[in-house]
Amino acid sequence: MTATDHALDLVRTAAQAAADKLATDVLAFDVSDQLVITDAFVICSAGNDRQVKAIVDAVEDALREADAKPVRREGERDGRWVLLDYAEIVVHVQHEEERQFYALERLWRDCPTIDLQLT
């Protein structure tokens, strides 16, 4: 099983919104074979707490324009790692230190990456 076309569209929309706010190391994985609860993860980093919030806001705005609403949102108060769950995709916006410590891309390295086609 692979991520749906709709999920891939949401992934690319979220990734582009994050990149537009200068997120670094933007990656996406198709986790549909490993998890039944979502199709894809988007992971990106920010240099400080304020940038984490700016990226989260941009992603939410872009996905809202695509008629996607988050089912769950976690970590915003601390501003170090915010998780946005859209059911089909999950977006992780992490402070660089959390990104290095938790190394999500290492955990999911067996999953295929998604070509983000960022501009």
UniProtKB/TrEMBL annotation:
<dbReference type="InterPro" id="IPR043519">
    <property type="entry name" value="NT_sf"/>
</dbReference>
<keyword id="KW-0810">Translation regulation</keyword>
<dbReference type="GO" id="GO:0090071">
    <property type="term" value="P:negative regulation of ribosome biogenesis"/>
</dbReference>
<comment type="subunit">
    <text>Interacts with ribosomal protein uL14 (rplN).</text>
</comment>
<dbReference type="GO" id="GO:0042256">
    <property type="term" value="P:cytosolic ribosome assembly"/>
</dbReference>
<dbReference type="GO" id="GO:0005737">
    <property type="term" value="C:cytoplasm"/>
</dbReference>
<protein>
    <recommendedName>
        <fullName>Ribosomal silencing factor RsfS</fullName>
    </recommendedName>
</protein>
<dbReference type="Pfam" id="PF02410">
    <property type="entry name" value="RsfS"/>
</dbReference>
<dbReference type="InterPro" id="IPR004394">
    <property type="entry name" value="Iojap/RsfS/C7orf30"/>
</dbReference>
<comment type="function">
    <text>Functions as a ribosomal silencing factor. Interacts with ribosomal protein uL14 (rplN), blocking formation of intersubunit bridge B8. Prevents association of the 30S and 50S ribosomal subunits and the formation of functional ribosomes, thus repressing translation.</text>
</comment>
<keyword id="KW-0678">Repressor</keyword>
<dbReference type="GO" id="GO:0043023">
    <property type="term" value="F:ribosomal large subunit binding"/>
</dbReference>
<dbReference type="GO" id="GO:0017148">
    <property type="term" value="P:negative regulation of translation"/>
</dbReference>
<comment type="similarity">
    <text>Belongs to the Iojap/RsfS family.</text>
</comment>
<keyword id="KW-0963">Cytoplasm</keyword>
